[in-house]
Amino acid sequence: MQYLIEQCGQNMQDLINEIRKLIEYAGEGGTINKADIDLLCTKQTQAIIFNLTDYLGKKQIKLALEELNNLLYNKEPIQKILITLYNHFKKLYFTKIAERYKLDIAKALNLKPNQLFLVNKYKMQAKSFTDLEISNIIKELIDLDYNYKIGKIDLNIGLETILCNNCSK
User: What per-residue confidence (pLDDT) applies to 169?
Assistant: First the structure.
């Protein structure tokens, strides 16, 4: 159930719809596993961003680019992807700082009580990057936003470049 919530979000109506879809697929007395959720359920943008970041941390460029393309295929606005990636890496940076100074990570990230499960996910992802790598990615995302706004670069090309650059290090 936790995996379903992580992938599909916390909106009860969305979860009900996804559970109905899974029950219909599994049939009476059938079982539902992680692969079924991955196959059938509509993933929340945040879940895809977590996957993309996992692949980036593991230097798996092909899979990271596939996740980016999944977002684009699902008609996610490219500007929203940029902002979501920026906010995600900012949270990873805050996680590293909070851990270093033994602060409450949930408070540092301003998480709601129903989002506390995210603390461990952020901690695990933050370990895949050095402080310098995270700050460089944040800077690259800020620079991309600026260069896009002045017409110097296409956002899709810029995001792919950032992913490729950080997977090759």
Answer: 64
